[in-house]
Amino acid sequence: MFGSLEREFGPAPYQWFVPGRVELLGKHTDYAGGRSLVCAVERGFCLLARARDDSVLTVLDCHSRERVSLTAPGGQATSPPSSAASGWAIYPATVLARVSRDFGITRGLDLALTSDLPAAAGLSSSSAFTVGTFLALAAVNNLQAHPAFPAALPTPLRCADYLGRVENGMPFEGFAGAAGVGTLGGCQDQTAILCSIPGEVGQFCFDPVTFERRIPFPELHVLVVALSGVVAAKTGAAMESYNAAARAVHEIERRWREASGRQDRSLARAAASGPGARGDLARLVADDPVLRPRLEQFLEESAELVPAAAEALHRRDLGRFGTLVDRSQLAAERGLRNQTPETIHLQRSARSLGAVAASAFGAGFGGSVWAMVEANRAERFLEDWKAGYEAAFPARAAEEGGGQADWFVTRPGPAATRIRESHRT
Question: Distance between CA atoms of 110 and 138, rounded to whole angstroms?
Fold first, then answer.
């Protein structure tokens, strides 16, 4: 993609590949301080950047031909910025405003991008976009030389934590909060995008983000990803549905602080604060039909399923791994209530077709489902999975009817990578 992008945009000294991610397990756990099991995918954004002499950030989507121009707060523009071309402009605008305030931006840039990562499909296209914007701004402005940068963001893990808070608007270390993009998420996506290793799955704990272990992905297996065609955009009513799960966690945390007198920074820390803490939390929400299943889902997913599934994967006990992933899917359906008939069908049908494991992932309310299958039968599996979905949900799958369902095969891929001149393709 870089060759065609450079022909479109012209020479550019700054080039990155920024991947999407698959969440194997860890449904809505990160903002509660829980665990996730994640990997990058082999699809993502290709970005080219050139420095400017003013404080304007221009972004060109070379696929849609949409362009937006933004000026850093307090910066000077040599040409008037245009209005936002579409809703995606909130992502670079949020990064530009926060990074300008926290570290200072003296140079703008022209940024061009193209992507084979489906938008609004649960693969973290929006977080990949914000990460890519940050990497470009940091490089052009040599932010590593800023006095506050080495202490605040010395590692990719800390950068992931910071960028998660850029998106959700929360404070980070000595930096105050600011307007985010509107979602109340954590930093799972940014962690997978910045900290993945090809061929491996990473287990992380959050708030603050902490590396726990890596597990080699089975060499003879791949992930087949099905896009349901149900758009999972975190805007409008969909954003409110997504945020409801986060607000439920915040309400449980509020009740805990009030009842216990403690100031634990996350639900995970509250649950681990003493031998009776989980029981105390359960009693606080026992009569609430929303908070009780939300607490149960979080505790099962974070404290039990993620570490047990990671160990099963490490031991190559794929039968147990599949059973644990099934439990995660059911917990999401009952506790998060964020699954649709399409994602439920895709998960069940993948298992009936012989997938080692399968689960919906991401924010929910649409999006995608992953299935782990043997590499030598992935193509046949994909065709059978696709045919079954087309029969069950023809409107979602039919291209002539505007359906957006799609399928692709991947293995765990690399983290965001600066591309050298000699490595362009």
Answer: 13
CB atoms within 10 A of CB 244: 16
234-285: pLDDT as tens digits: 555 567 777 899 999 999 999 999 999 999 999 999 999 999 999 999 999 9
DSSP H helical ranges for 181-290: 188-195, 236-260, 267-271, 277-284
Neighbours of 384 (CB within 10 A): 16
Residue 333 is given by DSSP the state: I
For 193, list phi and psi in degrees, rounded to 5.
-70, -35
Structure tokens given for 359: 């689960």
Q: What does pTM read for this prediction?
A: 0.93
Residue identified by tokens 């929303």 is 290
Question: Which one, of 187, 134, 178, lies nearest residue 157 by Cα?
Answer: 187
238, 77 Cβ separation under 8 angstroms: no
**Alpha-carbon distance 372 to 359, whole Å?**
9
In angstroms, the Cα distances linking 322 to 265, 309, 411 are 33, 8, 17
Q: Is the peptide bond before 171 cis (omega within 30 degrees of 0)?
A: no
CA atoms within 13 A on the CB side of 140: 32
pLDDT category of residue 423 using cuts at 50, 70 and 90 = very low
For residue range 201-222, what is the model confidence (pLDDT) as tens digits?
A: 999 999 899 999 999 999 999 9
Instruction: Say if CB 54 and CB 108 are below 8 A apart.
Output: yes
Half-sphere exposure of residue 27, counting CA atoms within 13 Å on the CB side? 35
Q: Which domains does the chain have, with CATH numbers?
A: 2-216+414-423 (3.30.230.10)
Sequence-separated (6 or more) residues with CB below 8 Å from residue 152: 102, 158, 162, 172, 173, 174, 175
